[in-house]
Amino acid sequence: MSGAAFGYFPGCSGLGTSLEYERSTRAVCRELGLTLWDIPDWNCCGSTPAHTVDPVLSAALSARVFAQGARAGIRDVLTPCPSCLSNLRNALEHMEDELFAARVEALTERPLEAGHSVKSVLQVIVEDVGLDKVKERVRRPLTGLKTVPYYGCLMTRPEKIMRFDDPENPQSMDLLLQALGAQVLPFPLKVDCCGGSLGIPVRDSVPRLAGRILELAGELGADMVVVACPLCQMNLDLRQGQIRTRGLDYTIPVPYFTQLMAYAFGLGDEEAAFKLLAEDVAPAFSCMRRRAEEIKAEEARVAALAAQKAAARAGRGAQSRANGAAGGEA
Amino acid sequence: METVLLNGRDDAFIRAVEESSGQVVSRCYQCGNCTAGCPMSFAYDYSVSQVMRLIQAGQKDAVLSSKAIWLCAACNTCSQRCPNEINVAGVMDACRQMARREKKFAVRAMRAFVDAFLDSVKFNGRSHEVGIMALYMLYTGRVWTDVELAPKVLPKGKMPLLPHRIKGRSEVAAIIDRYKQGLSDPELARARLAKDAGEESGKGKEAVS
Question: Are A208 and B42 an interchain contact pair (Cβ–Cβ within 8 Å)?
Fold first, then answer.
């Protein structure tokens, strides 16, 4: 698929704490031929706080986003953020109920026609663009990089509403990272909660929950934890220093999958935007290069050995043929 | 943990939770799968499955005064794993919404965080992290919350000090104000739907005559 166009909803964190996600997403979509039309004058979806107050309030904030899109002729919306995705998707699902829709309309005073859709950037890249096309674009494969993918809670749960990948053992990011050439380690905590938005009001939650995720990633020998959610990324990366003061022994960078795509596609530092992460990626990339050289040397050794064996076999074959010919003469 | 006497079942409360969440709570058979998978259990007073049982027993006060309904991270693990397909996280959400309406705030910091977030959205049309933190510190008095993170994000331009305000922010503020005025009340919406349907059928009759 090429030349597809979507309405784009960056979400509030794209303007601040997930600037690196935003930049790399736009660059990667451009490379893959996806056109993004920004929804004009979009507003916040209300995130977790709105739906903990009332799903109708949450849906009303999402409904304004869709209405703004509709005014610009946009029906299909793409968002990098799973929390925005979850709210926008839930709003559409709930508004299929007539009473719920009437309650939302009482708040927005803007009727919303049916026929809107919303998908995550990850879903569109894996399902619509396809991994073959991703592979074609790779200029700098991530050979030798050991990664664990971390999906978080909202991308695949609840299954009935999100309708994407497996809710307990998703594979889309695993396969995407493999397409970029990286090694993907099996990671049992890939959909466990990092503490979400409880980091601020319940101070013990994130060090405990995000701490488990980072600790296991470290124990497995991963160079990086690769994420798709701005809130997860903030908890795992920005709060990693806080978590280390509570006993975490590892330092492990936490880039977005789109940053690794930008790097593998050979795009510039501005697009990959690794500098914006709290934990440095440089040591992980030097490990990757060292391993890549080891892998190359090993491949060369195996190839040389195979060539030697083949030559020996060919030599023995010639010898026995020559012997056979000599015997016939006698 | 204190003992809860399961007498005085409040049936209206059970109906209210079911209507608000769209779930049938009597389908819970207490297998405990939700509790086993809940990442926040360590901080709860009642586990998720205990909250479900208290709702079945119509224990309005115990449920709405519990910390658990405020500390739920909304991760949806329980909803995904419930063998009876109950959206358990949706039930927790419904209880928290009800507690808020009844002004029961067992975890004050959670209320402050939610208020700070929505106030930021109301002022700007979008959420603004620095503003949320400032309001949160104001509402809770926890003035040093996460200040050690500032040097990691401020120089990178990842936490703009000023908000990105949208042109339609008054429209967003109006949504939140109308909500606070109770305009999304289901009875009002039902009455309006009935009125619209009446007008439709009235028009139909006129067309026939």
Answer: yes
Task: Tell me if A79 sits within 8 A of A7, measured CB to CB.
Answer: no
pLDDT at residue B65 in the model: 96
For B159, which DSSP code?
S
* Domain coverage including residue A247: 139-288
Q: Which residue of chain A has the CA closest to B166?
A: A41
Cβ–Cβ gap B76/A68 under 8 Å? no
Q: How far is A66 from chain B (nearest CA, A)?
A: 13
The answer to whether residues A162 and A246 belong to one domain is yes
The alpha-carbon gap from B151 to the nearest alpha carbon of chain A, in Å, equals 10
Closest chain B residue by Cα to residue A198: B73
Shortest distance between the Cα of A109 and any Cα of chain B, in A, equals: 8
CA distance A53 to A173: 32
Stretch 190-209 of chain B: residues touching chain A, C-beta under 8 Å: 190, 192-193
Q: What is the DSSP string of A104-115?
A: HHHHH-S---S-
Tell which of A73, A90, A123 closes a domain: A123
**ipTM score:** 0.90
Contact A197 B171 (CB under 8 A): no
Number of domains in chain B: 2
Residue A181, Cβ neighbours under 10 Å: how many? 18
Q: Across chain B, how many H-helices and E-strands are there?
A: 12, 0
Q: Between chains, do A41 and B190 touch, taking CB under 8 Å as contact?
A: no
pLDDT digits over A120-146, tens only? 999 999 999 999 999 999 999 999 999
Chain A CB within 8 Å of residue B167 CB: yes
Structure token digits, residue A169: 């053992």
Whether this model's pTM surpasses 0.90: yes
Q: Are residues A227 and A190 in the same domain?
A: yes
pLDDT tens digit sequence for B68-111: 999 999 999 999 999 999 999 999 999 999 999 999 999 988 88
The reply to whether B50 falls in a domain is yes
Q: Which two tokens stand for residue A283?
A: 């040591």
* Contact state of A44 with B172 under an 8 Å Cβ cutoff: yes
Q: What letter represents residue B4's amino acid?
A: V
Verify that A14 and A106 share a domain, yes or no: yes
Last residue of some domain: B101, B125, B159?
B101
